[in-house]
């Protein structure tokens, strides 16, 4: 895990990044700025339990490509989940919290993941572990109104004007951040790639 100092506000941005693209970089930069974070951990996962990992590029390639995109020195590309031997977010977040006392973490996710978030293993535990920032993505702007997570935890939603305070709030707490969006998606990029 990247080095942190007690009292820091750190965003956790996980995904398979298969491949990473400018849309991911935009989410990371938006989160750093709007949430007033000291760091953002760009966490490249070994795989995704909810997706077909058949076309998953090797972890090393996805890390290298992510590092090329993450130009801001406050963005730390890491793949520490590989050493944990699992890829369930709820367990990863519990591990991160236990290893980093005194750090204020925020889980970062694109709005395109909000629609299916209730299918993630122990999704309620994720919401109750760290505050969550949902960053707008094309076609997903209304997910904060219609998703099961948004409805279940509507009482914990804070206004995006208060996003800079999110890291200092106890979970459950979440916000939806509107802003510039990239039309890029990993699925579309994989589909457009020439077949070998």
TrEMBL record:
Biological pathway: Cofactor biosynthesis; NAD(+) biosynthesis; deamido-NAD(+) from nicotinate D-ribonucleotide: step 1/1
Enzyme class, UniProt record, top EC level: transferase
Keyword check for Cytoplasm: no
InterPro entries linked to this entry: Cyt_trans-like, NadD/NMNAT, Rossmann-like_a/b/a_fold
SUPFAM superfamilies from the UniProt entry: Nucleotidylyl transferase
CDD domains hit by this protein: NMNAT
EC number(s) on file: 2.7.7.18
A molecular function (GO) term: nicotinate-nucleotide adenylyltransferase activity
Domain Cytidyltransferase-like: 12-191
Catalysed transformations (reactions): nicotinate beta-D-ribonucleotide + ATP + H(+) = deamido-NAD(+) + diphosphate
UniProt keyword terms in alphabetical order: ATP-binding, NAD, Nucleotide-binding, Nucleotidyltransferase, Pyridine nucleotide biosynthesis, Transferase
Short name of any one Pfam family annotated for the protein: CTP_transf_like
A single BP term in Gene Ontology: NAD+ biosynthetic process
Nucleotidyltransferase listed as a keyword: yes
Function as written in the Swiss-Prot or TrEMBL entry: Catalyzes the reversible adenylation of nicotinate mononucleotide (NaMN) to nicotinic acid adenine dinucleotide (NaAD).
UniProt family annotation: Belongs to the NadD family.
Protein name, per record: Probable nicotinate-nucleotide adenylyltransferase
Biological source species: Sinorhizobium sojae CCBAU 05684
């Amino acid at each position: 895990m990247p080095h942190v100092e007690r009292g820091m506000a750190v965003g956790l941005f996980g995904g398979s990044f298969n491949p990473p693209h400018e849309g991911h970089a935009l989410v990371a930069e938006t989160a750093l700025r709007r949430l007033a974070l000291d760091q953002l951990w760009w966490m490249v996962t070994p795989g995704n339990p909810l997706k077909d990992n058949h076309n998953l590029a090797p972890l090393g390639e996805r890390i290298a490509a992510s590092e090329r995109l993450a130009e801001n020195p406050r963005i730390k590309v890491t793949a520490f989940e590989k050493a944990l031997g699992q890829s369930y977010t709820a367990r990863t977040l519990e591990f991160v919290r236990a290893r980093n006392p005194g750090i204020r973490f925020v889980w970062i996710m694109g709005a395109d993941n909000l629609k299916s978030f209730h299918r993630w293993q122990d999704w309620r535990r994720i919401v109750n572990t760290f505050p969550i920032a949902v960053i707008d993505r094309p076609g997903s702007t209304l997910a904060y109104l219609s998703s099961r997570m948004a409805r279940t935890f509507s009482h914990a939603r804070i206004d995006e004007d208060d996003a800079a305070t999110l890291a200092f709030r106890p979970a459950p707490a979440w916000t939806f951040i509107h802003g510039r969006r990239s039309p890029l998606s990993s699925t579309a990029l994989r589909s457009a790639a020439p077949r070998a």
